[in-house]
Each structure stands twice: as C-alpha cells, then as structure tokens.
Amino acid sequence: TSNMAENHPVGFQWVMKAKERGAKIIHVDPRFTRTSSVADIHVPLRSGTNIAFFGGLISCAIQNNLYFKDYVVYYTNASFLIDPAFKTATDGGGLFTGLEQTGKGGVDPHVAETYKKDTWKYQLDGEGNPKRDLTLSDPNSVFQLMKRHYSRYTPEMVERVCGIPKEKFVAAA
Questions:
Q1: Which DSSP helix (H) or strand (E) runs through 160?
Q2: Reported pTM
Q3: Which among 4, 104, 151, 152 counts the fewest CB atoms within 10 Å?
Q4: What are phi and psi of 162, to 5 degrees?
C-alpha cells in the first residue's frame, strides 16, 4: 500500500475517524511509515510478494467460511461448472491445462509457450446457459477450482515467500 498518511492526508482523516470508532488499521508495506505508526498491525512483507499475501488471504477466507456466501453464489460465477478436463495449476503440477510449446523445443530461444484453452469453458445446459451448482460443492464448480488453487497458500507458505511471521499473517488475516 502507499503511505496514505503522508500522500493522502485528506483521505486519511477518514481512516483515523474509523479507528476512533473501533476499526482496526492493518498496514501492509515493506517500509515502516507514518501510516504504519498509527496502524494496529504493520505487516512488513518482501517487495514483490503481494500476490502470495493476497492468495493467503483468499485461502484463509475460503477455509474459514469468511465470505458472504449468498453474494458469492448468486452474484458471481462461483457456482458455474467448468469443463471436467480443465485442471488448475494446483491440480496440474504447477501448470494450468493446455500448455503447449511451439517451435523446435529444447534449448531453442524461439520456443514459445501458449495455452490451448479448449477446456477453459463452462459446462452448458440444453439452452446454452452455464450449468450451476448452488451448493458450491461440485468439484468442477468455479468455487471448488478456486478453493483447490488457493489451498497451497497456507500461512506457512506466506511466511516463506513474503517473510511475514506466520502469527502476524494470521492476525492480519
């Protein structure tokens, strides 16, 4: 995040008003700044590791049912069913389904990798609408694919990648 206290002082007044009313301020930034000094928790992560941090937050929210289920079911594509042949990077040893190399291969610098996306599609009913599982339990639902994909973003993995002590990550999450 940016140093909001210094860079956006007018907007930061609302953060401070929220804190006065009991809100907790969590500042995630590699640097300790003026924003960090008023935060309840400063989470210093390694630069460039924010995606792993966000993945850990997503995993925590899913594993602990800390999401608004009705919204997820009715207003996102989480209940839509995906082609059973599609595999996430977690299911596919680090690669999504369909990775292809073009060119000569080997050590040739002209080799390109692209994804053939023929399995990256919804299952459709007879009218051409995506099939859905409103319970979010079907293993081919977007929700379950996302859950599997983010399952590897454990507090231990976030600690290893981001350099955030596990206890501090859990407190922030």
A1: helix 155-162
A2: 0.84
A3: 104
A4: -90, -15
